[in-house]
Design a protein that fits this description.
By secondary structure, this protein is an all-alpha fold. It folds into 2 domains: 7-47; 61-108. It has helices at residues 7-18, 23-30, 34-47, 61-65, 68-77, 83-92, 99-108. Helix 1 (7-18) packs across helix 2 (23-30) and helix 2 crosses helix 3. The mean pLDDT is 89.
Length: 120
């Protein structure tokens, strides 16, 4: 995964822009893209700083977790239910969650949906 460029570099690039250099001139001088200079300038104006935001990580599980109680109740009532059946049951209630998001939810909550043959 890539890493964000340092705050120090961002500050030096924007200092050059504030000193009269164009975005393209500053980008060429410091070896970054002109688009990056524009984004950093926008961050400086909007946020007052040029710190990069978080990279990677889970940003969507809270949408599934919001319906955790409903999902867990359905799992108890439908022991042999499939992910597709769970997804359809949620869809009937106006809740749209992908099959893969449901799978990740079940893994997080240690709920196995694997079918096992009865022991002989």
């Amino acid at each position: 995964m890539s890493r964000a460029l340092s705050v120090d570099l961002r500050i030096r690039v924007l200092a050059a822009v504030n000193g009269g250099a164009s975005h393209r001139e500053a980008a060429e001088r410091f070896g970054v893209s002109a688009a990056s200079v524009s984004r950093w300038r926008h961050l400086q104006i909007q946020q007052g700083n040029v710190r990069p935001g978080p990279l990677g990580g889970d940003r969507n599980s809270h949408k599934t977790e919001a319906h955790a109680d409903l999902i867990m109740i359905w799992l108890v009532e439908h022991r042999d239910g499939t992910l597709f059946e769970l997804r359809k049951a949620l869809g009937d209630q106006g809740i749209s969650i992908s099959k893969s998001a449901l799978h990740r939810f079940l893994v997080r909550h240690e709920q196995t949906r694997k079918k096992r043959l009865a022991m002989r």
